[in-house]
Task: inverse folding
């Protein structure tokens, strides 16, 4: 890795030509995919409508809520079968209670409509590709329908097929049963649910030029509407850092400016958090603590998460996860692919000393609502010494020595990535949805 060292980190940008070369250009609206407003409004309603879940009890917005910066405020989410919202969400009870936690942290949605985004999910299992002739390499392979406008439209379809997230089990409803047969089998059923709702039918006809009757609505139009909403709703590039990039040298205070110098210099954050989104969209092993159910492959004997390797089957990808973008990062904790750290300072310190932080990590650092019937398994992976040794061998970051004061400056800079309008979104959460189901 290339390190950038500056004798006076508080100097202004003009005095740091080497850092200036690393800084991204200011983002502008034209950097994002074009969106039809009528489709985005329709997508807003679908995003918060539980009609798209197998048991009609959870929506996309439950785990990617406006009140929680597009995430859910939990380390590992509580999906289908749970009740409530955010850190107060409970795991349900009786026969409909959750059977496991969501294996990974619910990622925030900021700036995913940027034209440079070509890969999504923590393990990159969805990417722009012509491998299957439909524009994407995805878990649905050739069964993903053609006609999806962009990667966000494709992404919107996959939580609908996850038994733990939104589908439910085959014993509970027809969606869970259909997914159990083949990943694409549930989409026609969900599309029929939507288009036979009179209000939705009329809105699709109005929003899509090629749709003349509600009967023509398929999962493609549903995905495109939700994708349009996410792409437009979660754009954010009006932070102090963005003003600084646009030439306002006074946009950052002294601590934030020192943190900027550290981010692009001594701390080496920009070696991965680079480009306009502050993400290289690549995969790196950070040695984060392991816990939860893991995202296991069918032959895995333990609740581990191999990250990118689980998709690529390449040992070189073991325990590597996609670099997250950082706009509004102060609003989107907990941090890491499994939310191992509840605070920005915690995840920063882990980056600076991954082995030491891993050794010192305590389950108290995570935000996991108590689930009695899962308690024994939540941290079982930590007891496997062989897995711990394998995990420790895969690490892509080296320790960096910073003082407590420098860490505080770095955290101050991360707070300067919060947009002025981050908590005042164009559409927000709807008060009601056409299905009449409750809105979280």
Result:
């Amino acid at each position: 890795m290339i390190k950038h060292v500056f004798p006076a980190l508080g100097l202004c940008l003009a005095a740091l030509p080497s850092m200036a070369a690393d800084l991204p250009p200011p983002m502008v609206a034209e950097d994002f995919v074009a969106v039809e407003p009528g489709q985005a409004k329709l997508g807003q309603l679908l995003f918060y409508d539980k009609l798209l879940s197998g048991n009609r009890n959870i929506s996309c917005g439950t785990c990617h809520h406006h009140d929680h910066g597009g995430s859910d405020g939990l380390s590992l989410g509580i999906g289908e079968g749970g009740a409530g919202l955010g850190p107060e969400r409970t795991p349900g009870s009786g026969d409909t209670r959750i059977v496991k936690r969501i294996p990974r942290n619910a990622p925030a949605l900021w700036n995913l409509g940027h034209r440079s985004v070509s890969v999504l999910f923590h393990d990159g299992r969805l990417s722009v590709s012509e491998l299957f002739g439909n524009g994407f390499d995805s878990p649905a392979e050739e069964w993903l329908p053609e006609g999806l406008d962009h990667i966000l439209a494709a992404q919107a379809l996959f939580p609908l097929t996850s038994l733990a997230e939104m589908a439910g089990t085959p014993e509970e409803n027809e969606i869970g049963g259909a997914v159990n047969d083949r990943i694409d089998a549930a989409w026609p059923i969900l599309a029929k649910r939507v288009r036979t709702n009179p209000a939705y039918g009329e809105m699709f006809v109005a929003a899509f030029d090629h749709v003349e009757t509600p009967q023509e609505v398929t999962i493609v139009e549903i995905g495109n509407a939700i994708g349009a909403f996410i792409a437009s709703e979660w754009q954010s590039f009006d932070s102090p850092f963005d003003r600084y990039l646009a030439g306002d040298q006074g946009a950052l205070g002294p601590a934030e400016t020192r943190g900027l110098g550290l981010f692009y210099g001594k701390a080496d954050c920009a070696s991965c958090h680079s480009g306009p989104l502050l993400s290289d969209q690549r995969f790196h092993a950070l040695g984060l603590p392991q816990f939860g159910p893991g995202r296991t492959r069918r032959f895995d004997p333990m609740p581990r998460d191999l990250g990118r390797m689980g998709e690529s089957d390449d040992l070189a990808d073991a325990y590597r996860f996609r670099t997250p973008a950082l706009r509004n990062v102060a609003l989107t904790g907990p941090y890491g692919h499994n939310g191992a750290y509840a605070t920005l300072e915690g995840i920063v310190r882990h980056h600076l000393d991954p082995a030491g932080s891993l050794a010192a990590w305590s389950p108290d650092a995570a935000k996991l609502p108590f689930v009695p019937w899962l308690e024994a398994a939540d941290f079982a992976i930590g007891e496997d010494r062989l897995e711990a040794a394998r995990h420790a061998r895969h690490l892509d970051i080296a320790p960096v020595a910073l003082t407590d004061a420098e860490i505080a400056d770095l955290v101050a800079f991360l707070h300067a990535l919060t947009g002025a309008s981050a908590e005042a979104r164009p559409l927000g959460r709807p008060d009601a949805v056409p299905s009449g189901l409750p809105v979280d």
The beta strands are 119-120, 126-128, 136-137, 283-284, 321-322.
